[in-house]
Amino acid sequence: MSQARTNARKAAVQALYQWQMAGQNLSEIERQFLEEERLKDAQKSYFIELFYGVPKNLIVIDQVLSEFVDRPVDMIDPVERAILRIGVYELLHRLDMPYRVVLNEGINLAKFFGADGSHKYVNGILDKVAQQKRAVEIKAKGAR
Fold this sequence. Notes:
Layout: H1 3-22, H2 26-35, H3 44-56, H4 58-66, H5 78-93, H6 99-113, H7 118-133, H8 135-142
Helix pairs in contact: 1-2, 1-3, 1-5, 4-5, 5-6, 5-7, 6-7
């Protein structure tokens, strides 16, 4: 797993958090991140994919999340919500990325940004989403 891609995810969590809280224009937030050199050590193309991909697919992402969370998606802690939305986006749209990588990255983001114990919540939700959306991949891995 490349550190540049991990850094892109970290930046995407921050940018999506900002978007969720302030409702700013996406390109305005992206411009701020570029100007402040917050993407210096990040894979910019992956940041762009996540940062624009999540809002573009938000209805589907939140529908998937709502099947597995214990409250309305809007009521999830905003940091956890950004992390979960990135994880669901990757599980649905980045089939080239093993589901375990998506889960591990989500857990690490929650440990880095979230409250104590939020990594357990993120892991539990993303694992349930993966069981449903990546069932073929999980079954294939278990068959070895």
